[in-house]
Amino acid sequence: MDRKIVIAEDEAYLRLLIQQSIEELEDEGVEIFVAQDGPGALALIEREAPQLILLDVMMPGMNGFEVCERVRANRDLPQPYIILLTAKGQEYDKIRGTEAGADRYMTKPFNPDDLLDAARAVVC
């Protein structure tokens, strides 16, 4: 089985930080793909069918909640594990993420080791 992760983050420095946090998984045969906005993320997810999506909530074009809902509604996709990454740590946002179909919610700033551990648990 192909092991793939999609990172969806609009801020370039955060995208790079997320990539660097999980890049050692590439040595274990995991492919990592990145998108800068919601529509790009959705297209990448539909094309690559990743096992894991690391999804920012606040993105242009389509927010992370919307991307999550569309992925969950697409029964042609193998259903991936979705981690929402966001600076919005209010309880309402966590509830909204759960309702959208997210499996986990991590607030920024995140611990890179925690993110790596979470990713490894899903794809390895």
Automatic annotation (TrEMBL):
MF GO annotations: phosphorelay response regulator activity; transcription cis-regulatory region binding
Record key words, sorted: DNA-binding, Phosphoprotein, Transcription, Transcription regulation, Two-component regulatory system
Xref: SUPFAM superfamilies: CheY-like (SSF52172)
GO biological process entries: regulation of DNA-templated transcription
Family annotation (CDD domains): REC_OmpR
4-aspartylphosphate PTM sites in chain numbering: D56
A single cellular component GO annotation: cytosol
PANTHER family: REGULATOR OF RPOS, TWO-COMPONENT RESPONSE REGULATOR ORR33
Name the record gives this protein: Response regulator
Organism encoding this protein: Halovulum dunhuangense
